[in-house]
Amino acid sequence: MTLSRRTLLQASATGAALGTFHIGLGKAQTAEFTYKYAHNLQVTHPVHIRATEAAEKIRQETNGRMVIQIFPASQLGSDTDMLSQVRSGGVEFFTLSPLILSTLVPNASLNGIGFAFPNYDAVWKAMDGELGTYVRGQIGKANLVVMDKIWDNGFRQMTSSKGPINTPDDLKGFKIRVPVSPLWTSMFNAFQSAPASINFADVYTALQTRVVDGQENPLAIIATAKLFEVQKFCSVTNHMWDGFWFLGNRRAWERLPEDVRTVVARNLNAAATLQRADVEKLNATLRTELTAKGMVFNDTQAGPFREALRKAGFYAEWQKKFGDEAWAILHRATGGNLG
Ligand code: X2X
User: Is the pLDDT of residue 209 over 70?
Assistant: First the structure.
């Protein structure tokens, strides 16, 4: 009696376990949609951490119908490659700086005008408001899908292996890596630097081998991509704010049923909000950490840099390129910090 009851209990326990196993396996095997998401950051960066959480929630909330596989650190290719892949459908999702996106959607780079945003409050008001709506409209016209909430990259700072950047004069002749984007090249040409367009995937090596002497990125990237190993000086310039639009391939997006799309968009946008707070916190605390790792920091004044850009005709040139409508939107968003 005892035995048979135990046998029975064991059998049912095994059955339950097997059942769970089968359901679990079934989910993995029968995901209706398995989409790839590529980005250029390390797995320790808040973009990767929050996107991973969101992908797990999306899997759960769709009962396993939607699986998002994440490929960090430019594993599938550089930003330039991934932009063409997300257009063709080779990857379904991709996060990209608005400035690099401007190689496809020219006015996407509005937020990157030098020294435009005074602080994060102004950034989020703009990107969640009129400026963001305008840019997302432009992205839509280029036949890509974009989530409502932009993710944070941060205010960018300049690093160098040579010496600190204190004034615009220090940028003259400076061999600096910039991302592949006309606005970045134009800005450092205006400073009379020698900018080299290099995808992020190749930046660490370019610095290590001294192909370039410096680069510029927010502290969260200088830390997580370990650029402090190959750069000695960090000059706090806050020379532009940069983010990441969460892009999707349109055909892949339209293949998803409405209810799945809703779950995906809701979780990605919620993750962006959490990620913004993570980066803001990191960018405020990392100076101490990077100093402890041997980096030498200096503060700078925006005034002389902005004046150098103005004198070089940078703002006038970009006002013409963006057009009056777009420039007026930027003007309203930044309280007139445009030269
Ligand atoms: O390429 C960069 O420097 C980075 C990582 O900040 C961007 O994606 C624009």
Answer: yes
- State whether the beta carbon of 221 lies less than 6 angstroms from ligand 1: yes
CB of residue 159 inside a 6 A radius of ligand 1: no
Tell me the helices (H) and strands (E) count for the chain, helix number first.
14, 12
Report helix, strand or coil for 33.
strand
Q: Is 40 a pocket residue for ligand 1 (Cβ < 6 Å)?
A: yes
- With a cut of 80, say whether residue 137 has pLDDT above it: yes
For residue 135, how far is its CA from the centre of ligand 1 (angstroms)?
A: 19
Atom 1, ligand 1: which residue's CA is nearest? 200
**Ordered strands of the 194-197 beta sheet:** 194-197, 175-178, 214-217, 157-160, 233-236, 296-299
For 248, how many CA atoms within 13 A lie in the half-sphere containing its CB?
17
Please tell me the distance from the alpha carbon of residue 21 to that of residue 44, in angstroms, as a whole number: 31
User: Three-state DSSP class for 232?
Assistant: coil
Q: What is the pLDDT of residues 80-124, one digit of tens each?
A: 999 999 999 999 999 999 999 999 999 999 999 999 999 999 999
Residue located nearest, by CA, to atom 8 of ligand 1: 97
Distance CA 190, CA 64 (A): 51
For residue 47 and ligand 1, the question of a CB distance below 6 A is answered with no
Tell me if 181 CB under 6 Å of ligand 1.
no
Residue 120 CA, ligand 1 centroid: distance in Å? 18
Alpha-carbon torsion, ordered 99, 105, 108, 109, to 10 deg = 40
Query: What is the number of the ligand 1 atom nearest to the C-alpha of 218?
Result: 6
Crossing angle of helices 120-127/130-141, nearest 10°?
50
Q: Is 279 in the pocket of ligand 1 (CB under 6 A)?
A: no
Return d(Cα 59, Cα 142) in angstroms, integer: 29
- Paired tokens of 37: 């998401």
What lies within 8 Å, CB to CB, of 203 at 6+ separation is 177, 215, 225, 227
Gap between the Cα atoms of 235 and 301, Å rounded: 11
In angstroms, rounded to a whole number, what is the distance separating the alpha carbons of residues 58 and 29?
16
